[in-house]
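Why do we care about 3D structure at all? Because function follows from shape, and shape follows, mostly, from sequence. That is the central idea of this module. The next example makes it concrete: a single protein chain, its amino acid sequence, and then its structure expressed as tokens.
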Amino acid sequence: MSTVISIVSYPFLPARVGGQKGVALFNKYFCRHLKLVCLTTKKNDPQAAEGYEVHNILSNSRLRYINPFYLVLIGSVIRKKKATHIMLEHPYYGWLGVLLKWICGVKLVVHSHNMEGLRWKMLNKWWWKILWYYEKFTHRRADFNFFIHDDDKAYAIAHFGLRPERCLTMTYGIEWNQPPASGETAEASLWLRQQHRISPKEKILLFNGAFNYSPNLHAMDMILQVINPLLGKKDGFSYKIILCGRDIPGDICSREYPNVIIAGFVEDIGRYFKGADVFLNPVTDGGGIKTKLVEALGYNLNAVSTTHGALGVDPGLCGGKLLLCDDHDWNTFVDLIIRATQFHENTPLPYFQHFYWGNSTRRAAEFIG
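And the structure:
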């Protein structure tokens, strides 16, 4: 069996938000197919890992990204564990991965979660082009490249000059392979209505995210400032919008908005997904796949999204449960919300076949051999 050394250069255990879950859950299922040893920063809790070793050998300092000592330290781990592959989560340790590949004779895997250069360009960082070239350098020297969705993979093949046979779409996933039972959703809906005093006549619209991330914050602003007022003008449509997630700004929490419930961080977001009627995804910037959209559809929620917000989620897999509109077309977005409340089919089996972690990580393990 191959042994993979995974290098994760930031806190992700315990996993609380989408990006952290993307790494933790990938590792949880990937280690069922190959032996996995994770090297990460001291801020991570090894007890939160499931099924694989975690060693906190990287410092928390920002200087960790340029520390040449790690070449010797990680090289010794590679030899001790008789590793066959090293895997980088994101390209930031590209220089280290390339040197370890050459010195230790291992295969290099780069697991991309965004087109990082383009993401920082979208966030108006002047240095994005430098990162873009570094990202290109790293991917071109990898033996295998994982991308979060097909659009990123196609972009990298075209602009980085990668060989398609060395590239694989490795999507964010879910841990269940069928929709929740109808009894679960009915119980969750009843609990949600009791918890937040929502009448049976009102539709429950949900948005959640980590609001220290500007694309999510912008999306919440659109809900509060544009989408909610437009919905309020629709005669005969009764609803409540629930906003869940960490780091909602205090000035928003202190205000009252008609038909809006600011729940903030909740312990069991799955209960909210199961109990809601429609998931809102008015995201128009940022990179990668929107993990909350993948989870919402997996929980059998109908979803309304902008085109950008649905990158990596093929509507053809969703059986009519994902409704899309052009970015910033909020009048259409609102019309689709009302339409989504009238659709009652289940998320189809092909969706789960594609997004279930057990399936996707098996494909990844087979791909790198």
